[in-house]
Design a protein that fits this description.
Distance between the termini: 45 Å
Number of strands: 36
Shape: globular
Strand content: 35-45%
Largest sheet: 8 strands, mixed
Number of helices: 12
Strand order of the largest sheet: 29-30-32-31-33-34-35-36
């Protein structure tokens, strides 16, 4: 992922400003409502002329709607009032319009709307029932802009074509037809689609063209675990691209590629121990400002003298460890910042460099008091094969006894847990639990071979790394070995159940939040737009035809007889990747031999719980459930 950045003068001015948030310590238990209240403000963006700030606010049903703040007079207005659906993404189109991508609770039935800055003419320009996926691919947005580029699988559910929408008229036109193998499109700073990523069997291919009139031609082809991540085209070098690449190396390096040949021209930076995680650049100068690496916390490497000092001063003044540039206007003189840490979910600020003025825009959750939160501490240990595994341990404050442990695998096997504020972690820690979050093999950010070691190892290497981490915590007397439970969402719920299946004497209870139960069903439910990626999906998860024994052994639904500990399940009726009837039948089967099975179903929810009242009910139920079986 890339983020736009600013130049040195921004940090010089920001370093002079002071903001701190203090809170008093309290002894009473923090209610679940405090941790899980729907976000007050998020997803801030600024108009190209720097006069208006937009944001999303979440209502009690979890539906995100669009709001506008007039910077000059301070007026706020609500532009949308969606019910039963929510804004997933949006962008400014020039200074006068905004374009919105909207979805329902099941994360499907995407639609696209346009609206004027003053709230007039909210129009659905792409009908939600006609498509299954829409993504913006626009790279730049000048003040006089009236159009937006986006990818959509309207013509063929399995293929995304590139469209250009004229926002004032609402007319869209196809500007690039997908030949059948392209999964993702990339535009340059002039909004010309010049790069595309495709899939061919288990290979990832890259295609390039210089102008709209040319055909795309293949320039790079590798196994999908060896790839590049485009950042931006190099100013003054028409064919050259800044990118992250792990071609001919294990870790992602920052490189410059000549797209006319597909060859790497130079290495800007590489680290043999860690991937480069993020690259930050200035859109106005077309220069990379800094990039980050890190096995535990992100470490930033600055390419311009003096910026690092300003950045550290700003962190100190704002009282948080991380400052991010969220957005800026065309001049890069009006900037939206976000400040956060492991103990603070974040606050947003508008910085006006010309006036050297910092104004708070809003909080993610103003009720969170930093002093009452618990530190998310990076840890590392070696698994039984001698491979270094990284993760995080959050310990509760106080207490003379070793705390009980909640093992919390991350929700996607090929993602990772990052050092940041997590409401679930802080909620559990406030209840006296230690929380363990391992980045097992398959997790991203630790190199190509580490990632490959998790392929089709959902109950193999992945499970072993989690278990070795628990053993390490026990051996180092970090937790009470007689009081261990597991909690997870999606894949995390799947992993939590498998931990109990393989080690029933160690785990006292398990909570599965929309957990995967049956890999056969999960693979079958793959959305149409991922079907061209089918060979890769089978490399990641498994083949229903070739890996039958593995899939059965890994799927909890085929191992109900081994789940004899207390279990709590949550399932949303609109979860597009979960089969409600199948989970319900699985729970019925479990109850035949296990009297300690609880089941929460919410027909109106998707893979995640959105409604505030449902969130509070769920987490209060989880708290009582764990307490009941850890007496």
């Amino acid at each position: 992922m890339t983020r736009n950045f600013l130049l040195r003068y921004v940090f010089a001015g920001l370093a002079l400003l002071l903001f701190s948030c203090r809170g008093d310590s309290y002894k009473e238990k923090i209610p679940a409502e405090t941790f899980f209240k729907n976000s007050e403000s998020s997803f801030f963006k600024i108009s190209p002329d720097g006069k208006y700030v937009s944001s999303l606010k979440e209502n009690q049903n979890g539906e995100k709607n669009l709001f506008i703040h007039n910077i000059s007079n301070g007026n706020h207005s609500q532009l949308t009032s969606f019910e039963g659906k929510s804004i997933r993404d949006y962008c400014w189109v020039g200074n006068d319009f905004l374009c919105l991508i909207v979805e329902d609770a099941g994360c499907k039935d995407f639609g696209m709307y346009t609206v004027q800055r003053d709230g007039n003419k909210l129009e659905e320009v792409v009908l939600s029932y006609s498509v299954t996926k829409i993504d913006f691919i626009q790279k730049s947005n000048p003040p006089n802009n009236t159009s937006v580029l986006f990818a959509m699988n309207d013509r063929d559910p399995e293929r995304t074509d590139v469209y250009k929408l004229n926002v004032p008229s609402g007319k869209k036109e196809v500007i690039v037809n997908n030949p059948g193998h392209v999964l993702e499109w990339f535009a340059d700073e002039d909004n010309i689609v010049r790069l595309a990523r495709g899939s061919e069997d288990t290979n990832e291919n890259w295609y390039y063209r210089e102008t709209n009139e040319e055909d795309f031609r293949k320039i790079i082809s590798n196994h999908f675990t060896t790839n590049i991540k485009p950042i931006l085209f190099v100013k003054g070098k028409r064919h050259h691209l800044y990118a992250l690449s792990n071609i001919k190396r294990d870790k992602y390096a920052l490189v410059e590629i000549d797209c006319s040949t597909g060859k790497e021209q130079r290495i800007i930076y590489e680290n043999p121990n860690t991937d480069i995680l993020n690259v930050v650049y200035s859109a106005r100068t077309n220069q990379i400002i800094y990039f980050s690496t890190g096995l535990a916390k992100e470490k930033r490497h600055f390419l311009f003298p003096g910026i690092e000092t300003y950045y550290k001063n700003l962190n100190k003044k704002l009282g948080t460890e991380v400052i991010e540039i969220i957005d800026h206007d065309e001049s890069e003189k009006n900037i939206i910042l976000k400040a956060y840490s492991d103990k603070v979910p974040g606050s947003y600020y508008l910085y006006k460099s010309k006036q050297n003025q910092l104004t708070k825009l809003g909080d993610v959750n103003a009720q969170i008091i930093q002093e009452r939160m618990n530190s998310m501490v990076p840890i590392s240990y070696k698994n039984k094969e001698g491979i270094q595994i990284h993760g995080y341990l959050t310990l509760p404050k106080g207490g003379k006894q070793l705390p009980p442990l909640i093992v919390m695998p991350h929700s996607g096997p090929y993602k990772r847990t990052n050092w940041e504020y997590d409401p679930e972690v802080q909620f559990f820690a406030s209840r006296g639990y230690a929380v363990f979050q391992p980045n097992f093999r398959g997790s991203t950010g630790y190199g190509k071979e580490f990632f490959r070691a998790g392929l089709k190892q959902w109950n193999g290497n992945i499970h072993a790394d989690i278990s070795d981490g628990v053993d390490w915590l026990i051996a180092n007397k970090k937790i009470d070995s007689s009081r261990i439970v597991a909690f997870g969402k999606g894949f995390g719920g799947f992993a939590a159940l498998n931990l109990a299946i393989q080690q029933p004497k160690l785990y006292k209870s398990v909570v599965s939040y929309a957990g995967i139960m049956n890999l056969f069903t999960y693979i079958k439910s793959t959305p149409d737009y991922y079907k061209p990626h089918k060979p890769v999906i089978e490399e990641l998860i498994g083949s229903p035809e070739k890996d039958v024994d593995y899939i059965k052994s890994a799927s909890p639904i085929f191992n109900s007889g081994k789940l004899n500990i207390p279990l709590l399940f949550f399932q949303g009726g609109k979860d597009s990747r979960g089969n409600l009837s199948e989970v319900t039948q699985f729970v019925k089967e479990l109850k035949k031999h296990n009297n300690n099975v609880e089941y929460i179903v919410r027909d109106e929810e998707g893979q995640r719980i959105s409604k505030f009242e449902n969130k509070i009910h769920f987490y209060n139920t989880v708290e009582a459930f764990f307490a009941r079986y850890l007496k």
